[in-house]
Write the structure tokens for this entry.
Amino acid sequence: MASSTPKKKRTLPGIALWIILALVLGMVLFSLLGRDGYQQIDTEQGLTLLSEGKVEQAKIIDGNQQRVDLVLTEPFVDGDTDKGKQVRFSYVTARGEAVVQAVEEADPAKGYTDEIATSSWWTTLLVSFLPLLLFFGLFWFLIMNAQGGGRAMQFGKSKAKLFNKESPKVTFADVAGAEEAVEELDEIKQFLVDPQKYHAVGAKIPKGVLLYGPPGTGKTLLARAVAGEANVPFYSISGSDFVEMFVGVGASRVRDLFNTAKENSPAIIFIDEIDAVGRHRGAGMGGGHDEREQTLNQMLVEMDGFDENQNVILIAATNRVDILDPALLRPGRFDRQIAVEAPDLKGRLHILTVHSQGKPLAPDVDLEVVARRTIGMSGADLANVLNEAALLTARSGNQIIDNRALDEAIDRVSMGPQRYSKVMSDRERQMTAYHEGGHALVAAALNNSAPVTKVTILPRGRAGGYTMVVPTQDRNYQSRNELLDRLAYAMGGYAVEEGIFHDVTTGPGSDLQNATKIARTMVMQLGMSERLGQVSYGEGQDEVFVGMQSGQGPQFSDETAQLIDEEVRRLISRALDEAWSVISENREVLDRLVLELLEKETLNEHELAEIFRDVRKRPLREVWQSSQGRPVFHDPLVGGDPAATGSESSDAGEYVQPGPPELPHPGGEGPSIPGAPREPGPGEQG
């Protein structure tokens, strides 16, 4: 079977090649057979031979070819060339009468005749059908290339790839940091292996499993692990492979894919990036006639048409579950929806352990310390950290990956490579040191901020310098005070530039963007404003799905929009005042920090802790209530107070790695300022 497939693919191209070769050979033979032994001479030479009586026989030919064929009494020599006794010359219509008269006057011994030239049947056939053959040949060639060669009439055939059981397998043991997803998918495998176990208790096999989560968290890796674990046919295809330029191809490929899986059941179908074909219907410019919508409709029909005893399960992956069609997500189609999120500390340690296999680590390397420094990173980020560390080690000529290489690798993945070629003046270095020092000082003086782990004035990526504020542990929630602290140390660089240099640069540009995003999230989505109350305004404003929301207007009035702007401005203004107060109260500490930065350029957590030992902490904020008329409860907590026992640090938080800044940033990028609290990330921004 394995050897028969290539032969079938070569059959049609082989036939076409033989047809082309036959046409070329026929044209060559026709050209050779068409030669009758007559040599071409000039018209003047032919008339001279007629007038001198050297012509034994003549033939006048008219029609599409106007010529005279002559048989001479002796060979004709043209210079050094012997033309022989058979020659011909051509003439134009205007000289026709003169040529005929010359032949009549010559009166050849064997006489003369005339005839009308006609094309042979072979020539007529070539002229009539050769253009059509060339056209269809070109069309056939284009179709074969577009369809992968040899499948010109198989537009609607599925492009799904059948997993090769002989290839190196990825198993569940290779998947780290997603234990819940592994457990769910392992059960799916058991459904196919031993369905009677579940039928005996009245359980039905799930028809579909949807894996969703941020990019790089291992959704496709989980599907590959299922393929490696399951001893059933596994068909994988990308969502974009269904739709082509030809109408109806997508729906036909869906039918073909599901029919193939049913014929080989029990089987698993995996569709990667299903959002390419499963987007919300009616959310585009093509309406119901959109080819993508027809493909989705066919997929919905096929998923509903599964017979309970056919044992075909559909697994799909996406990072945009919010834009999928509701009919696709309902029970009966995707019965199970598994979130694959960024790993926690235990998951990160497991991922680092898996990807460190085969890499020589120094004895003093502690992967748990690396895991604590990479809060919010996805599995792909962590794999990239170890790979970057290995590349840096090889580049430096070392054989062992040490902590220095890992530290640099974390910075490269978080902020980009260091720009050694960038030259900064003494004034710019001083301003960058004060800017980053302002961020670090304000973060150190606040009561709900995560600890400052690193400050540098070395340019990296698009940042002129950066400050790392990394939580000590994973957290699922953030309090209002923690968000206010983030706003305050975000404005630390701006406060320093305005207060000390009496001017501001483009440096705080990304700081203002991130602070505005946090403040707007607090006001619009988290109900942390007294004036606006506990109402969520404008859901999903961060990521607009054009097809669904292009025709929608604001979900609030103009007066509310003005009030939102005022509240956002008030929060940022208060944060700037708080940052200004911290810098005023700790100017000596700031100057000491700047001197150390100018000398060492980079300060680690221990060096920063020594400098911040004398920082004056800010007083605790007053208890906040959304309405002053409500009572404040002071009763003790049941079950004890975790914060009092130190089991849950108050400086931990959920942090996000924002996108790259858009403004020039000579003074540094600022501290770790995440976006909306619902979007976890590494927590490192310069």
Notes: Residues 1-10, 149-153, 540-546, 645-686 have pLDDT under 50 and may be disordered. Residues 164-280+289-339 form a domain with the Rossmann fold fold (CATH 3.40.50.300).
